[in-house]
Hints:
Elements: H1 4-11, E1 24-28, E2 31-34, E3 39-42, H2 45-48, H3 57-67, H4 82-93, E4 101-105, H5 108-123, E5 127-131, H6 140-144, H7 149-152, E6 162-165, E7 180-186, H8 201-212, E8 215-219, E9 243-246, E10 257-261, H9 263-266, H10 285-300, H11 302-306, H12 308-318, E11 326-330, E12 333-337, H13 341-354, E13 356-357, E14 359-361, E15 364-370, H14 378-396
Parallel strand pairs: 3-13, 5-6, 5-7, 7-8, 8-9
Antiparallel strand pairs: 1-2, 2-3, 4-10, 9-10, 11-12, 12-15, 14-15
Amino acid sequence: MLSQRQIFLNHIAQTSSSPLALEIERAQGVYLYDKDGKEYLDLIAGISVSNLGHGHPVVLEAIKSQVDKYLHTLVYGEFVLSPQIQLAQLLTQHLPDSLDSVYFVNSGTEATEGALKLAKRVTGRTNIVACKKAYHGSTHGSLSLMSESYFTSAFRPLLPNIHHVEFNEESELSIIDENTAAVIMETVRAEIGVMRPESDYLQRVRKRCDEVGALLILDEIQVGCGRTGTLFAFEQYGIVPDILLLAKGFGGGMPLGAFVASRERMLSFTDNPILGHITTFGGHAVCCAAGLASLQILTSQKDIIESVEWKANLFKELIQHEAILDFRSAGLLMAIQLESFDSVDAVIQECLKTGLIADWFLFNAEAVRIAPPLIITEAEIRKAASILVNALNKVYGTK
C-alpha cells in the first residue's frame, strides 16, 4: 500500500522539486502536529492566514453553525445571505466612508483581478503602475504585475501596459499620468522581505493619483487584519486607498478575499456590460461566517492587535546573533536577513528538526520569514526565539 507521502508526491500537483511534505494530522493554537505526534511551533501561520491561531473555538463554532443552515446557494445574484451581509457591514464600519462596498472573492489573487477590472472600468484607461519585486498573486492578470522575468517569462504574453517603479522612490512617480487607470502597491511590502514606506511616500503617491485621476489600490492581503499593529496597515500612513485588497487572515482560516471600494464605483459592474464581474463561490456562506467571527474577535478583543508591537519587539530583543545582517519588522511580519539562501535554508531545516516552522520570502530568499499567529504568547515567543538562536548557532557556530 502506498504511503500518504507517496500519494502526495504522485497525485498532488507540485510547484517545487523539494516540498517539505510534513504530514499534518491536526493543529491547535500556534502548533501543528504531524502523524507521529511531533509538535511544530508555527511561525508562519500559513503565510499570514491564521492570525487567530489554528482552531479558534469561536471561529469553529461559527463554521459549524453555518454548515447546519446551508452551504452554497447562489452567491452573486438575487439572494441575501446573512453571513455575507453581516461581514460586509462590520468590515465597512471599520473602514473610511469611501470604502463602503465589498466584493467577496475566494483568494487574494482574485481580489487583485477584480480590482484591476474595476479600475479600468471606472477610469476608461488601460495603464497600470506596479512596484518592482512586488507580489499580488499568481493568476494571469496578477502575474502580469510582477517585474521579475524569472517568474513570468514562461507564461507570456501577459497583460500589456504595465509599468514598474521602485518603491520609496518619489522621483519615479511621474510615470503615473493621465493614461494610468490605477497604481497598485502593498501598503507594507511583504515578499521583498518586509519593507515599510518611508516618510510621506504613500501620501505622495496618493497626491499624484489625485492629480491625474488614477485610482490607488492598496494590497493588504498579507498585512491586513491586524498583522502590522493596526486593523489595516494604511491607517498608520495618513491615506485612504480607492480600492483595498484583503484575503489571507481575513477568512479566519477559510478561503476568503475581498476588494473594497465606494458603492458608486462598484456599481459600474452593473452595466456596460451587465455582470461586469462574477464569481461562483466568492462570498461563500461558510467562509463569510468564519471571516465574520474572526473580524468580530479582532475588533472586540482590542489587546490582540494592541499587543502586536511589543511582541515584535520581544522577538527582536531575543533573536540576537552576529550572523544577522538586519532584522526588519512591521508588527508581526518580520524578516531576519542573513548572507545567503543556503544559510536561510540551513536555519529553516535546523528549526524543523527542533519543532519550529519558519520560511523565506519570494523576492528575498536570503531572509527568514517570521509571521506567527497574533495570539502567540510571551512564553511561546521565548521558546521560538530560543529555537531560532540555537539554529543560528548550529549553522554559523556559537556567537
